[in-house]
Write a structure and sequence with these properties.
Length: 79
């Protein structure tokens, strides 16, 4: 399963680690470019390229005010 994690702060890193441990292919989308340096080989995308990756599931680990727009985009992309 391809899992797309939005946000790579402390919660996003935990969700990413757990999804990898469960054997899923994982990619991360985060707007904070500094976080991309701490990725251990994980794929990082901007939001448009993230949806082009065609994920099977999405985890929203971003600040609460951003959840709705990400959720609506996930619905639009049938995730």
């Amino acid at each position: 399963m391809k899992v797309l994690v939005f946000g790579y702060g402390s919660m996003g890193k935990r969700h990413t680690k757990n999804a990898i441990a469960l054997g899923h292919e994982v990619a991360v989308c985060d707007t904070d470019v500094d976080r991309l340096a701490d990725h251990d080989g994980i794929m990082f995308f901007d939001e448009q390229k993230a949806w082009d990756w065609l994920p099977d599931a999405a985890v929203i680990a971003t600040p609460a005010p951003t959840h709705r727009s990400i959720h609506m985009a996930a619905l639009k992309h049938a995730v």
